Each structure stands twice: as C-alpha cells, then as structure tokens.
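Many groups now describe folds with learned vocabularies. In that spirit, our science desk offers one protein's residues alongside their backbone shape tokens.
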Amino acid sequence: MAKVQVGLVQMSCTSNKQENLDKAIVKIREAAAKGAQIVCLQELFTSLYFCDVEDYSNFDLAEAIPGPSTDALAEVAKELGVVIIASLFEKRTAGLYHNTTAVLDADGAYLGKYRKMHIPDDPAFYEKFYFTPGDLGYKVFQTKFAKIGVLICWDQWYPEASRITALMGAEILFYPTAIGWATDQDEETNKDQYNAWQTIQRSHAVANGVPVVSVNRVGFEQGGAMKFWGGSFATNAQGRILYLSSHDEEETEVVALDLAESDFFRKHWPFLRDRRIDSYQPITKRFIDED
C-alpha cells in the first residue's frame, strides 16, 4: 500500500482521566470517519501534563500496559479498523514507572510498546522525577497499513533516535509530544522555540527519507502559566509540510502519506548509501576529549 491515511488528534485535557480517554475515543472516531487508517494521539493524553510539579500523588495516574486504557482502545481499533498510537503513563511494578506508547493494530491486537528513551528535567518539565528511561530500545511495529516507528517528545531532539528507528525499517516516524510556551515569554522567543522544534523534526524526515508525524497537545495548563502550543504537523519524506495545525484550537485532521516517495527521495538523495558507518564510533562518547 503506497498511500496511508494518517490521523492527527490535537486536543486539550482536563484533570479527569476517564473524561480525557472518552474524548480521545470520540476524536479517533472522527478521524476514522474522515478516512484515517492510523491515528496518533498526543503524549500522556489521559491527563493534564502533570510533570510541572514533583508530586507523589501523580503516580496514581499510572497504569499497566497492556491495561485498562489499551483494552478500551483495542475495542475501538477493532471496531473501526484503525491503528491507534496511544501515549500512556505506565506503572511497570511498584516504584517503577515509564512514559510509554502502546500500539494497537487495526484488528485490536496489542503490538507492543515503546518506552521513552530521553527523559528531560527542566523547570515545569520534571520528568526524571516520574519516569525511568526506556529499556526496550528503539522500536518499530508492523501494522496492517505500514511499518511505523514511534518516539516520544524529548526524543524528537535527537537525530540518533530517528536514525536508528529509520534503519530498523520504519516507514513513518511518529512523535506524540507535549510541549508549550511559558506564558510570560515574549513572542519572539515563542516563535524561535516553535521553529526549532519543527525544524529538527523536519530534518529527521530529510535525513532518513521518511514522513514524520508530530502530535502535540493544546490549551492552557499549570494554572495558566503554560500554553501548550499545538502546532501538530505532518511532513512527506523530504520534509515538506503537508499539514500544520493551529496553536490554539483542538483539531482532528487526516493526511495522506505517500510511502512510495521514500524510495524516490532515497535514490535521488542517497544519504543512507553514503553513510560512513566505519567512522561513527566516536558518537557513543559523551564528549570527545581526552577524558
């Protein structure tokens, strides 16, 4: 199948977990009605972005994967015949938690999960307090419609993560994400931050010759101190923007991705062919110095 219809669900969230899950299911149905075959939800879509504070009570939001949310979404995936990419807060065992994305195939089958590898620790993004770094490595999932690679938010800044996932055979890179602006920032800083975020992900499409789909949340959280900037987008395999959402509104959109373009662009821009893999050993160092 050369063309795949991909649904992007950009939404705001509340403090009610069931309400958010129900809302996401409504939007998955909207995407499917528009022809979506693969639907991607934003990072941690069943809750507000709770990592703005270090609060032990927030661990109560976590659940097993597979678990209640994946069970509910599996039924929807099977009913609608769509693949669902669902980012959830995983409780692995007592005291061990991950930021994890589950993938459900179009027949409702649970294909597996990816645990976020890169964990930030910035003001209002205290993820190291909650999440253990992923230990499953980078992952691809053979779904009914395409072999997909899933990475999560902070992973999007790392070309190594996208490269490895593409080399594993991913035909599309998906990034569920949650990122926003501090509302006391000036507009120029806001624009620079968003442009950097979009640019690095478009570069993953160019470098690897695969489409990229990035799905962000929207709306004010953290008592109005944070505006999650939306701006979800999809590119083709040469980094061209095919769809770009607003910074302010909830949106459910479906975009056609032509997977045959990857072969065309990789032939004409043979970046994979010309990689000097014999020279890359130093990249595994933290910094290249004498220590």
In short: Residues 51 and 265 are 39 Å apart (CA to CA). The longest helix spans residues 187-208.
